[in-house]
Design goal:
alpha/beta; globular; five-stranded parallel beta sheet; single chain; 22 helices; RNA-binding; Gyrase A, domain 2; Isoleucyl-tRNA Synthetase, Domain 1
Length: 594
RNA sequence: GGCGCAUUAGCUCAACUGAAUAGAGCAUCUGACUACGGAUCAGAAGGUUACAGGUUUGAAUCCUGUAUGCGUCACCA
């Protein structure tokens, strides 16, 4: 049991005995005492002042006295205004540390047969463009969230819905046929997703040129758009695709194959993956069927022109189109079809969609519609909504070429990590392979940490210069601390130092602070339901790292009595393990030396 | 315009359920390497938490209004 719980239960009991007030232990949340006061944990007595009909100081003193007399973990207290500062027996902390060190799976909960099954959808790319910085935030959040959920004892299924059909991919296909002269990723030495992205850009270029020409002939914007031959051809291709024209389908499959190979490479480098991938081309028909089913049940309605709608006005929302008058499906329809397939494939208890906040309304609507259509988790689906990534110059705009490509960015981060390591002389005596491995881990660690440390709900600014920083609240700073601890522990082993019993040692303030910080960890993980949990973990592990560094500079870990060394080694080992675990939840790797 | 989200130090971000003097990093300035790893640490300076009210013993946090920014309101995805 954590010290927090020990204290809150004891205080609850004290309040009951002293004032006959029922205060649930859960409602009493001790906080770490501020540095300027004596004590380790602080409980506020304000809530009981009225019922006890005494001054806050008196209440604090009475509870404090009761605790010292009745709770063995409490050795003293002091009261400042309405704040009861509790001093925990120094030796108690050793027990806490021993508990952490002994429990290999500390900080996580086991996944059992009875664990709820949570499905997490993230990434969700289109197949006409390579991944960019915005996708990185999505993918890292989704991947980290999955790991956290699993550590909290959930069965997790990671999923991806690929938007592989629609006019956008037809544009790329058309451009490839017309202007790319049979180029393949191999022949052009370009990643497949980039090649298809180039096609898409090329289409846009030609389309714009055509529009310009038409307008110079005196057409208005609308007239030019209607008269455009390339756009007409793209639409024709889409119709052929819908009719399953073999030639179009074959080209579609070929180009999508290139894109998937490219995406896989990017995912792999990021260290993320999926348990099950869905494709819209295979789910949209199910969506239609499900909508028609809802129509029969009477939860949806059909308009005179044949289009199908959901009336959500009683939920405070609008009406929403689900099938066009020509019977084709829209975005929402596809999501319904995908939901159906997922429901058929897995016994889902909870569904989490990691999707940008520009779609907040869409998911509000989707939740209601899924609920009406009888999905048991529909009402409670979680839209893990996150804000945009902006650049110091403002928003990313593909038209202005300010989009930051995911592959380029990763490569750049790794290059910079290598450069800096070389400058600092960190690479001396290491093989090329070792250097590359470290640069990869550190460069990507910097990138991932930078994107995950921010509260997902907020828009964030991505500053390339700062992200490559290696000091302060950054991934590399934490990775460095880990590597140094490992180094110290290696030294200890070489010196023949053994972990001996340290139960008689009284830890100093610095050491207690570190133990307390370590003890906070399970609480952090348990909060995974909160929408910004990866950020919570990132900031926690940074705080832990700072705390450790202060401890590290305070003492000589390996030079004291065997008992004291043992305590310090245990602290170091527990810190290293916690850092590794926490970074693992963020999808960030560690290296033994860097 | 309706709805939703945001606004905290020069900059990038914290602050768990309302709690003590709102915390870090970067940048600036001052110190510390005969030490187990200096990619480090210690210190200084930097704030009317956008503004105005309200609730409360207590508000960055809850409520109302205002301003600014972003998103959304497609038979696009």
């Amino acid at each position: 049991m954590s010290i927090d719980k020990v204290i809150s239960q004891a205080v609850s009991k004290a309040v009951k005995e002293l004032y006959d007030i029922d205060a649930a232990p859960g409602s009493i949340v001790p906080q770490a005492t501020r540095k300027e006061f004596e004590g380790n944990l602080t409980v506020m007595v304000f809530p009981w002042v009225k019922a006890a009909r005494k001054a806050p100081e008196a209440v604090g003193n009475e509870i404090g006295t009761w605790l010292v007399a009745n709770e063995p973990a409490v050795s003293g207290y002091n009261v400042v205004k309405g704040f009861l500062n509790i001093v925990v027996t120094p030796t108690y902390w050793n027990g806490v540390l021993a508990g952490i060190v002994a429990d290999e799976s500390w900080g996580t909960r086991p996944v059992t047969e009875e664990s709820p099954l949570v499905m997490v959808e993230y990434s969700s790319p289109n197949t006409n463009k390579p991944l960019h910085l915005g996708h990185l935030r999505n993918i890292l959040l989704g991947s980290s969230l999955s790991k956290i959920l699993e550590a909290c004892g959930n069965k997790v299924v990671k999923t991806n819905i690929v938007n592989d059909r629609g006019i956008h991919i037809c544009k790329s296909m058309l451009a490839w046929q017309r202007w790319f002269d049979g180029a393949t990723p191999e022949s052009a030495s370009v990643k497949g997703d980039h090649l298809v992205g180039d096609c898409y850009v090329s289409f846009d270029k030609h389309y714009k040129a055509e529009l310009k020409e038409l307008k110079e002939q005196g057409m208005t914007d609308e007239e030019a758009e209607a008269a455009s031959t390339v756009m007409a051809e793209a639409r024709a291709m889409l119709r052929k695709w819908e009719d399953a024209d073999p030639e179009v389908r074959s080209l579609w499959e070929k180009m999508n194959g290139w894109v998937y190979a490219g995406f896989d490479e990017t995912y792999k480098r990021m260290g993320v993956g999926f348990d099950k991938i869905y494709y819209e081309s295979q789910t949209y028909l199910d969506g239609k069927a499900k909508v028609l089913e809802g129509l029969e049940k009477g939860v949806l309605y059909r308009r005179e022109d044949g289009s199908v709608w959901a009336d959500l006005r009683e939920n405070g929302l609008d009406e929403k189109l689900l099938l066009r008058s020509d019977g084709t499906s829209v975005y929402m329809t596809q999501d319904i079809g995908t939901a159906k397939q997922r429901f058929d494939d897995y016994p889902i208890d909870k569904m989490i969609y990691v999707v940008g906040n520009e779609q907040n309304y869409h998911f509000q609507v989707l939740a209601i519609i899924l609920d009406r259509l009888g999905f048991k988790w529909g009402k409670d689906l979680v839209h893990f909504s996150y804000g945009m990534v902006e650049l110091p110059e403002g928003k990313m705009k593909s038209r202005e070429g300010t989009v930051v490509d995911a592959d380029d960015l990763m490569a750049e981060m790794v290059d910079t990590a290598k450069e800096v390591a070389t400058q600092l002389g960190k690479t001396d005596g290491l093989s090329e392979a070792e250097i590359d491995n470290i640069a990869e881990t550190v460069g990507l660690g910097a990138l991932k940490y930078f994107l995950l440390k921010v509260d997902p709900r907020k828009n964030m600014t991505f500053n390339p210069k700062e992200s490559i920083d290696f000091n302060g609240n950054t991934g590399p700073f934490i990775q460095y601390t880990y590597a140094r601890i490992r180094s110290v522990l290696r030294k200890a082993t070489e010196a023949g130092l053994e972990a001996v019993d340290y139960s008689g040692v009284v830890p100093n303030d610095r050491e207690i602070a570190l133990i307390q910080r370590l003890g906070d960890f399970p609480g952090v993980v348990a909060e995974a339901g909160r929408s910004y949990s990866p950020a919570l973990i990132a900031n926690y592990v940074y705080d832990l790292t700072k705390e450790y560094n202060q401890f590290y500079h305070d003492c000589s870990i390996l030079k004291d009595t065997p008992e004291v060394c043992s305590l310090r080694m245990s602290l170091s080992a527990a810190t290293a393990r916690t850092i590794r675990t926490a970074l693992g939840l963020l999808g960030i790797n560690v290296v033994e030396r860097m």
